[in-house]
TrEMBL record:
One Pfam family from the record: Peptidase_M1
Membrane recorded as keyword: no
Signal peptide: 1-20
Signal keyword on record: yes
GO biological process: peptide catabolic process
Keywords, sorted A to Z: Signal
Residue ranges of domain Peptidase M1 membrane alanine aminopeptidase in the record: 371-569
GO molecular function (one): metalloaminopeptidase activity
Any Gene Ontology CC annotation: extracellular space
Annotated protein name in UniProt: M1 family peptidase
Amino acid sequence: MNKLFTLTGLLLFSGILATAQNIQNNPGSNHGNKFEQLGTILPTPNEQRTASGAPGVKYWQQRADYNIKCELDEKNLLLTGSETITYTNNSPDPLTYIWLQLDENEHSTSKNANYQDATKMPALGTTQNLDQLSTRTDNGYGINITKLTDATGKSLKYTVNKTMMRVDLPVALRTGQKLIFNIDWNYKITDRMSVGGRGGYEFFPADGNYLFTMTQWYPRLCVYSDFQGWQNHQFTGRGEFALTFGDFKVQMTVPADHLVGSTGECINYSAVLSPTQLNRYNTAKTATAPVEIQTLAEAKVAETKKSTAKKTWVFNANNVRDFAWTSSRKFIWDAMPQKIEANNNTVMCMSFYGKEAYNLYSKFSTRAVAHTIKTYSDFTIPYPYPVAQSIEAANGMEYPMICFNYGRTDADGTYSESTKNGMLGVIIHEVGHNFFPMIVNSDERQWTWMDEGLNSFVEYLTEELWDNKFPSKKGPAYTIVDYMKLPKDELEPIMTNSENIARFGPNAYSKPATGLNILRETIMGRELFDYAFKEYARRWAFKHPEPADLFRTMEDASGEDLDWFWRGWFYGTDPCDISLDSVKFAKADFPKEIPAARSRMVKIDKPAVNAFEDISKIRNREDKKISFYVDKNTAAQDFYYKYDRGMVTVDTTTATKVEMAMPLEVVPAAEQSKYENKFLYELSFSNKGGLVMPIIVEFTYKDGTKEIDRIPAQIWRHNELKTSKFYVKDKEVESILVDPLRETADIDTSNNTWGGQAKESKFKIYKMKAAGTVRGQSSGANPMQKATGK
């Protein structure tokens, strides 16, 4: 602690003066608000949602339980249903009306939300294109309400506004009270392959059969919450759903030769399955590989016979936010169990798929389902439901315990590696949605990223643990670079309403997933991140979190101040572009004479206030605890060090004589060996992109060895535009590379390198006798930083 690294007086203080004059000439030019707290940007904590990010002591949410009976008319492509809803008001507010979603009205030309996008004349079109662009007549789609009554059979007044229905209550529903009411309805099922949407049918001309995906198919309660009241924003087809938890009992009457997959557990398999099918299902419960309950050969036979008889399948699902199902005679059906050790839950993992997907789905689908719920359980909370299913439907959409995916082979049964990986990615993603948002129940209509972004992040972790070489598209930082470098008028913050996002995929899926991965690998570290992320999932399982609840929990559970990161990555559009502007190089010099003190008069203002592989894959390979599914430095004591601790002082007058008056002596020969063979470097960086991020520096030495220094983002706190770092090295540096593993989504790597052309200078070293006095002004910058190497 008694040695001082210094230069001659003039060089020492030129750094102080230059920095001070720069601040005087460019006030505010180097410091904005990137490290300020989010403050009032986040909602004020209260008794429902605490400042820690946890639900408060007075947190509440509503409940809706459903008893539904429906019938699928395959010949007329019609679904008819009746339901009894029990709605419980747990809020402190008396409700004089309630809101329900009628999502099928999206397909209607007369009842839909009618939020139109700009249209153009197609260069090459079809009559169907023109029908969609020009029709103004009622196309007959949308839900028809045929009866709405209370529990006694008395009619209730209601108003349909596009995709929302308000039911007026004759008496206010007060806190703790239940409302029981009945709805009868029907709608014409749409061809989702031509008109789009998540639910409907697909027709197979080759065998004359249909595959039905019944989603958003029943009138269902909107969310009434503490943070916004009724979430009754219209459904336009993009922003997904805000839904209320409850228990479901659903009876589906379908053609007798159909197989049905559904949210929940079937409670009457003995009535709807053949003895052979039932025996196979029971065998599958303890199998170690998927067991076919309906075989390929049996499915092909079923396609040729169209039964006119009917069967009713009955399913129960508890504590879910939604309910979906599928029905077809085309299905092959297989199943196997997956044990979730953390809660001792055995989950039946199942797949339903047509012959068109057999060679892919029979090999991979159910295994991928099992891998997904196990891996997500490890990263979040233990999977709580009894079933998880993947349905091949040339689609990609999720619901509790069931999801619809794509993955068909070519006509000859072969498939490409890209098709296989695409299928696996979709299955993992859609099954993963069981956790976000089916359990951690965020508002997708408002914040798509809380659903898709968080899920895409854990999807990436799960893909990587399926296969260390899996070609993930969402998660690794380098994959978001092309989006981040777009012009600012083509970008918008992640914190943008779902309906208003222009580049939906990168904004709502990839950028938030990448941000979370950067937090995990580069900023927080795996241990801190994983603990905090699991805490968020645990706190908000089966509840309705908002963005602030995630942001606050991640900080609360980790002890990391991340407001700068949320501000830049989620609320801003600046990219990361860190430039290595210069490298100064010096060798130690031990003069035999002591320099005289030097001084000058300056005008100084008031003091300033002080095949590329990403890192996740590499770390996973190094972690001996991980098995993959597929293949089973002391800083030198400089002048600033002394100044900052009161060992030297400066004056604060406007016109000041600055002089070096530090007592020094020649370093004894015996002490010179400590530094005479050291290599001294100063690296200067600039923040050209605007987004503050950590600086990761890889040194390659002349002997071929490498070393990485990870500098936290807080190095930019006092100057968000420029910064520098001083190093003392034992070996000479051949080259320097910033962000060697492309962890920060740096959009311009051309300014990340240095090739060792710095001219050597002498760094003068003296021994300090005792603390001296320096009169003048300090800018708060390290006085060596501007002087090294001159």
